[in-house]
Predict the 3D structure of the following.
Amino acid sequence: MPRPGRSQDAYFDLSGVTYSTSLYIGTQNTNYFTTELGYDERGRQDRVQLPTGTIERTVRDGVNNRVVSVWVGLDDTPTTGEWSPDNTDGTDLVEVQENVYDAGGVGDSNLTQVTMIPAAVPPTASCSMPSIGATALS
């Protein structure tokens, strides 16, 4: 069962915003962007959702906390149950990276192979950035 997530806010425009002691100052996507973070049952970060909507899932092995794969997409809600690499029905996440440790055998948990999966082109979202010297992301 995943642990409740956290969020990080990045303020970029405070013009016209009055000081306040409330939790949020201004309007999301107008004055700040929010990045949502998710954690597994052991407290390890396993999900990041960017302000653009892009989701990145990190899968670790159960013993050594090693990252074994990375998945990217815009929808990680499966048809039934919770998301896992074995339960992707109804999602659009695609695997973009696989890691192998100790050449697939027993060893000291040394990362020996990283496979980037270029054919797995994740869906993209675009986000218009405010004019602070930055250009639009896509």
Summary: The two ends are 32 Å apart (CA to CA). Residues 126-138 have pLDDT under 50 and may be disordered. The longest strand covers residues 3-11.
